[in-house]
């Protein structure tokens, strides 16, 4: 009876190994989420866009800083409402290695410049006519905001407009690390 | 019947999962029952053919790997996403990153704590433990939109299930029948000018049906522009060939139609166990050959 028992245990071991290696990792990795939060923990991607002066610019220029990446458009009322708070956040924390980068989605430089002038926006603005940032950063709507650590990893993602208090609460824990 | 016939059949049915991974039947109960039956027959036949035990072990290992893939492996899934998009996956675990470059480069599966896996373009299969990945070509369209003054307009896709909200790339995930033709459709919005636009893709083959209108063989998109109330606007229907610009209902649209890779993921028997089983079966064959000579 020794051989059949041995064979039985060999088969059981093979089955166990198959099940373990097949399905031990299933669901243990990244959660199947959509939207901005699905990018948390991943490297932030950077694409060529244009500054308000027409020069080529990208997110990569701000590596090493705590970046508040905000996707917006001039036709978006919540974006317009949120902008002054973003400017205030930038004014308050820019000396602590924080930068707010507004990325206009799909409009012309003239439209973006007029919008920024009208609202008194002085933080860097990229004009992303190809909407590369929008499609890659999994926006579900606008505005969409990401916090990117100095090491280039996405720390937080937010769908919708944030108040100033919400912005401060989100960046404060990360400011000490920047 | 000796042991070898059910053993070989079991091996062949499992190896078929590698050759035809998209076959839906491999996840059906009848397939699992067949594998179980073949394994059971092998072991029943061992009563009279004990010298075949090594071959039975090898075939059983392969059968178990095939059973696990059949019963617990996910159904074949096709991941459709636009250039640059990152799609989180649970099976296999990781994020699938689609290329931004034109022409497209290979999509990459990035896994936490493990090496990245490049899914080779051109349909060649990539084996990953208990999954097989490969690419298929799919037609997509990059849309640029301008207002009457020529200013660039933001394009959104509020109802798309594949592309992201802010993607200007139509993936044509749905289809409709028009005059006995199955055509791919998609939609998008231009919120700055309150326009909603339906798009119907006419590939080069479908364009052939329109030869009475034009001899231009380039693929094109038929646009229908409507306002906030959902009604098609006057002058709001027209077709633009790839690379051309068309003016419709106060907006100008320019599609660029290109092929883009999608990723197909199918479950497969766990490769190391399958290989071990094949080795055991081969050793059994060599052993039997040696015995028959002596």
Could you characterize what this model shows?
The complex is a heterodimer of chains A (178) and B (294). Helices cover 38% and strands 20% of the residues of chain A. Chain A has 178 residues and is of the alpha/beta class. A seven-stranded mixed β-sheet of chain A has the order 2-1-5-4-3-6-7. In chain A, α3 links the parallel β4 and β5 (125-128). Chain A is elongated, with a radius of gyration of 23 Å. Mean pLDDT of chain A is 86; it is low at 24-32. Chain B is an alpha+beta fold and 294 residues long. Chain B is built from five helices and 15 strands. In chain B, α1 packs antiparallel against α2, α2 (29-45) runs antiparallel to α3 and α3 (53-72) packs antiparallel against α5. The mean pLDDT of chain B is 88. The interface between A and B is large, with 53 and 51 residues.
Please state the structural category of chain B.
alpha+beta
Model regions low in confidence, pLDDT < 50 over at least 5 residues of chain A = 24-32
Provide the gyration radius of chain B in Å: 27 Å
Beta-strand residue percentage of chain B? 25-35%
The greatest interface between two protein chains, and residues involved on each side, is: A-B, 53 and 51 residues
Query: How many strand elements of chain B?
Result: 15
Overall morphology of chain A: elongated
Mean pLDDT of chain A: 86
Helix proportion of chain A: 25-40%
User: What is the helix content of chain B?
Assistant: 25-40%
Globular, elongated, flat, extended or rod-shaped: what is the shape of chain B? elongated
Strand content of chain A: 15-25%
Give a short account of the largest sheet of chain B: 6 strands, antiparallel
In angstroms, what separates the terminal alpha carbons of chain B?
24 Å
Number of helices of chain B: 5
Q: How far is the first residue's CA from the last residue's CA of chain A?
A: 67 Å
The whole-angstrom Rg of chain A is: 23 Å
